[in-house]
Amino acid sequence: MSTPRDQLFMEQAIELALHAQQEGEIPVGAVVVYQDEVIGRGWNRSISCHDASHHAEIMALREAGQVLKNYRLIDTTLYVTLEPCPMCAGAMVHARVAKLVYGASDPKTGAAGSVFNLVAEPCLNHQLEIVGGVEQERCSTLLSEFFRNRRKAIRSAKKLKSSQQG
């Protein structure tokens, strides 16, 4: 169940997702919080950086590690607008993040309960507390609109190319 604190920090993650969207990236934002202070921020940059590892969560974890001068982010909470993929979930486990709070579920690659639950896998050496669905509608809408507009742009480009060839 989400708290007012979860709402506050998810709002900051949403702002970062909007920043990603303005840059033409998939609108996902993340913040890492330690002792009620944001110590890591990230937004998707995979498209502009041509790098599959430039997810919002990874960027936020990297910055948090620099702030704490430690790759182990014990007693932190990661807030992200989309349920993490396996890569990001694995990074959170390795970093020893205590809690994950996410907005929209990801039925295709979600690794915090939708497809499988890597962050709470009992066979691993660390499990995270999970709170899902915080600002779910807003987070889902951002993603849906991004992909709808992207498909529309692709169709328009194909039509234009076709008319120029014809």
The count of DSSP E runs of length 2 or more, i.e. the number of strands, is 5
Based on helices, strands and strand pairing, what is the structural class? alpha/beta
Number of helices: 5
Order of helices and strands: HEEHHEHEEH
Can you tell me the residue ranges where pLDDT is under 50 for at least 5 consecutive residues?
none
Q: For the largest sheet, list the strands in their spatial order.
A: 2-1-3-4-5
How far apart are the termini?
A: 57 Å
Helix content: 40-55%
* % residues in beta strands: 15-25%
What spatial form do the alpha-carbon principal axes imply?
Answer: elongated
Round the Cα radius of gyration to an integer and report it.
17 Å
Q: Describe the oligomeric state of these chains in a short phrase.
A: single chain
Kindly state the mean pLDDT as a whole number? 94
The biggest beta sheet reads:
5 strands, mixed
Q: How would you describe the overall organization of this protein?
A:
The protein has 166 residues and is an alpha/beta fold. The chain is built from five helices and five strands, in the order H-E-E-H-H-E-H-E-E-H. The protein has a five-stranded mixed beta sheet. Helix 4 links the parallel strand 3 (76-82) and strand 4. The model has no long low-confidence stretch (mean pLDDT 94). GO terms for molecular function: tRNA-specific adenosine-34 deaminase activity. Its cofactor is Zn(2+). The active site is at residue 57.
